[in-house]
Amino acid sequence: MNSLLKPSPRFFFPRNGTLFSYSTLSPSETRVTVQEIDEQLARWSDETQCPSLMTRLALKKKEYRIGVYQRLGEKALIAELRRDLLYYQQEQERTDSPYLSLIAVFDDVHFESEAAFQRALQRHLSYLMEEKDLRPSADGKAFFFHFEGLPYSVTGMYPGSSNPSRQFYRPALIFNLCEQFEALAQAVPFHPRALSR
């Protein structure tokens, strides 16, 4: 992978209680909202609704990245997320972090139903895929797909989800490499159901 790859201006990381951008050209509207998102994530991680042990550990250990994007499901707006997912993949491979997660948060879009949100989620992911291999998990709580040759698990959240563990104040997608879940399952074999709710 290209070692010179850089993320978009909408890509942020936590350090010493503050969120920093990898770019000095971050859009002003993102600067306004990203700290609010981080505060919401901090509260969310302390609640029982957090969608998985992986997500909870990523938030607790500050091993996450935040991307703040515009509308979910818009093909014309996919370039920044694609760029940031490539950077996330490069960073995860370099650090071999067991918990590093990319949390993509979108502008507040009011979906008419949970099915409408799911359609937008699947449409958004389809724009990232080189092959149309999107498939749901057995319990329907996540999706799996390949990006740049590696398998990913993606969990979608939005305010109106019928599942409390999938409720978040804005539409969001949590990206993890599947190999991270495999490693975590081996590390906590005594509590397999903690991996996903």
Describe the structure.
The chain is of the alpha+beta class and 197 residues long. The protein has one domain. 35% of the residues lie in helices and 21% in strands. The protein has five helices and eight strands; from the N terminus they run E-E-H-H-E-H-E-H-E-E-E-E-H. Strands 2-1-3-4-8-7-6-5 form an eight-stranded mixed sheet, sandwiched between helices. The longest helix has 18 residues. It is globular, with a radius of gyration of 16 Å. It starts with 10 loop residues before the first strand and ends in a 10-residue tail after the last helix.
Helix content: 25-40%
Query: What spatial form do the alpha-carbon principal axes imply?
Result: globular
Gyration radius (Cα, Å) is: 16 Å
> What's the mean pLDDT score?
79
- Placed side by side, the strands forming the largest sheet appear as 2-1-3-4-8-7-6-5
